[in-house]
Amino acid sequence: MTDTTFSHDTDLPPVTVAILVCPGYMPVDIIGMHTVFGTAPGATVHLVWKDLDEIMGFPTFPTRATTTFADCPADLDVIWTGAVAPEIFDDEETLEFLADRGNRARWVGGNCGGTLLLGAAGLLQGYRATSNFQQKYLLERFGAIPADGNVVIDRNRITAGPLTGSVEAALLLAQRFYGDDAAREMELQAEYAPQPIFGVGRPDLAGPELTQRALDHSAAIVRPYVEAIDRAAKRLGAVSV
After folding, report:
1. What domains can be seen in the chain, in order of their start residue?
2. Positions marked active-site
3. Taking the model in full, what pTM does it have?
4. Residues contacting residue 123 through CB under 8 Å, at least 6 positions apart
5. pLDDT tens readout for residues 69-86
């Protein structure tokens, strides 16, 4: 937690957040959650992994966890994960950690490929959820219900798309923990007012031709995830589609 908070004279309730970091994780998917709660007075943010050795995010982004799985608090207000490398879907220790903390946390959330990792941990069966458009259909492998929207909330599950999804999900959680006024100030302090250059950030905005081109260009990246997700779904015993 940083000493630079968004408002030093605001009395906010304590909130404990754990965010997964691991080899090959995508920092852009967690930065919104980390920033919103890392700058909130009284909040404690844990970056969690198996150990405290340096790990490399993707693209090249050296990182160290602040808390090990073993030392992470058992009862969290939020457990969060962004996109991770395909091999993490085969990592039983990580999946067991997410399942353990997720089954007790007040809120369970993830964005982009992190949503699928929550599914692999058995945390999305019967829940509406979203992810990045290239992989959202894979949520069905884990018994989840794919849904449209940059942020989707179903009971205490909150999932989002990549990039801005982390910021928007974090602000929605801040609203629930702290109320409208504090969340509004957080949005202002972050100057969160996105203005897309081209306005094609969703398939329905991009149209079929650009969307298909993007799918074709990302196919080689997505393929290892499909294979890892299929293995994880079989282990979990989820419905195969």
Report:
1. 15-236 (3.40.50.880)
2. 112
3. 0.94
4. 98, 99, 102, 103, 108, 157
5. 999 999 999 999 999 999
